[in-house]
Write a structure and sequence with these properties.
Blueprint: H1 3-23, H2 30-88, H3 94-118, H4 124-199, H5 211-233, H6 239-254
Helix pairs in contact: 1-2, 2-3, 2-4, 3-4, 4-5, 5-6
């Protein structure tokens, strides 16, 4: 029932009762009339307080619904912004943003349910507003759920790519290591072969027709030492001993 009509009916009842009491004053004692009057006044005051309380509750409910609408508009804006970020692949931490929006939606939903529960006799307009807000909340919840699924899928894709990249990087490192080992071995083998070739040439003084032989031997030994140096630069520690042996043989051939 409309609050103004209710107040009018209360006032009418009070007036009618007071008139009735006045017409019966001649036949009743003054104390009885006073008691009836006081009792009626008491009931009127109680009804008045109840009506004023109802008015206050309705006003507070309307204010709360207005606040909920404003906050829900903000949440909808944040949801749309998150949607753009997720679909375009930008945003610092979309997952955390989605979680915060979900928390805000849950809080709004709880407040709306509280308003609805405390205003079961609200008018149709208020009830329609509550229902519309619930539908808007449901749409936001559905969109956040969808975006969470998209975010999880993209996170899984990133994880898979990271795993593939790590695996490929490990394979590449292994391949480079094997190539390096093979290269070291090749330089060491080249140095050994060159020294062996130098050993086939005799140590001569280098006079007359022996000079080319001596020059050839010294050149081969120098190239063997250069090969050992390449192996050493690649991490072949054993190349040091081989370089010393090459120096010994070079000096031996040079000083002959």
């Amino acid at each position: 029932m409309d609050i103004n009509k209710l107040m009018g009916m209360i006032c009418l009842c009070v007036a009618m009762t007071l008139c009735s009491c006045s017409s019966n004053e001649k036949n009743a004692s003054a104390s009885v009339s006073r008691e009836v009057y006081d009792e009626l006044q008491k009931k009127y005051d109680m009804l008045k307080e109840s009506v004023e309380g109802t008015l206050s509750a309705n006003e507070e409910a309307q204010l709360e619904l207005n606040r909920i609408m404003v906050e829900l508009n903000t949440i909808t804006g944040r949801t749309i912004s998150l949607q753009k970020n997720v679909e375009s692949g930008v945003g610092e931490d979309n997952k955390t943003t989605a979680e915060r929006i979900s928390e805000s939606i849950a809080e709004i939903k709880q407040r709306l349910n509280s308003v609805a529960a405390s205003n079961t006799n609200a008018n149709k307009q208020t009830l329609a507003l509550v229902e519309n807000l619930r539908q808007t909340i449901a749409l936001n919840e559905q969109e956040i759920d969808r975006l969470n699924t998209v975010i999880q899928d993209k996170d899984q894709q990133i994880t898979n790519l990271d795993n593939q990249l790590s695996s490929t990087s490990a394979q590449l490192d292994q391949t480079l290591l094997e190539m390096q080992q093979n290269e070291k071995a090749s330089w060491l083998q080249m140095g050994d072969e060159l020294l062996s070739t130098a050993d086939l040439l005799p140590n001569v003084k280098g006079h007359g027709n022996m000079k080319p032989i001596k020059q050839a031997k010294l050149t081969i030994i120098k190239r063997a030492k250069a090969a050992y140096q390449q192996a050493y630069s690649l991490g072949a520690a054993e190349a040091i001993t081989k370089m010393k042996e090459a120096d010994r043989k070079y000096n031996e051939a040079y000083n002959r």
